[in-house]
Amino acid sequence: MNRYYISRFKGLVYGPKEYALYLKQCFNGELARMQTEYGACTTVAQHWDFALKHFAPCQKPSEILGFLEWAKVEEPVTIVEIGVARGGTNYLLRNCIPSVEHMIGIDYFPRNTRLHRKLHPDSVKLDFVGGQSAGATTLAEVKRLLGGKPIDLLFIDGDHSYEGAMADYNAYSPLVRKGGWIAFHDIVPQARKADGSYVNGFEIDVDRIWGELSPKTESKEFIDSPDQHSYGIGVLREANNADQS
Prior knowledge:
There is one protein chain. By secondary structure, the protein is of the alpha/beta class. It folds into two domains: 5-35; 44-237, 3-Layer(aba) Sandwich (Rossmann fold), CATH 3.40.50. The protein has eight helices and nine strands. The protein has a seven-stranded mixed β-sheet with strand order 5-4-3-6-7-9-8, sandwiched between helices. Helix 3 runs parallel beside helix 4. Mean pLDDT is 88; it is low at 1-11.
């Protein structure tokens, strides 16, 4: 590792300590700008624009905005999201649903966590858990953070393989209160090539899980177009758990 770091933007040479200070100043400056912009967001549409600019949520606007309006009526207090990525959907869930008091995001490597901790209402407790979502250690940490409280809304958007998404469902659905909701992202079948392989090169089989689970209970879909491939949000009511409310 080089002893000195060069800033191409300022044409200056920094030692390691000076460079670390420079990066901290850059972060604080960017954070201040973002907080000012964030403070001006008062509607779901404005929060969407903010999230799109800074965190690039992998969502179709009509689907996630429709889902958020629906969720506001359901008034979830505790939300657990599996699959944080850059945190765009996490940002929307905690900022656009006024009833939320506790938001937990799970990912192998949650990104932008320092920023996200500065961009949520004071009434929301925000936690991130790093690790394999269905792993015993991760599950134990989530249970610890919940402190015996049930999940009102579980949003599954992590491993998109059949086995992976089903493992997340099996691990966390027992923590959802009776009458609570479980959401899946990417319930629309993905396009395939003539040889059966996936067009985008990786496996998305959430539609299979949705096809198995949704007929068994009350469910709702948010799909932009019947002709689209992938995307789509489906929510189903948890009716099997003991009453944890």
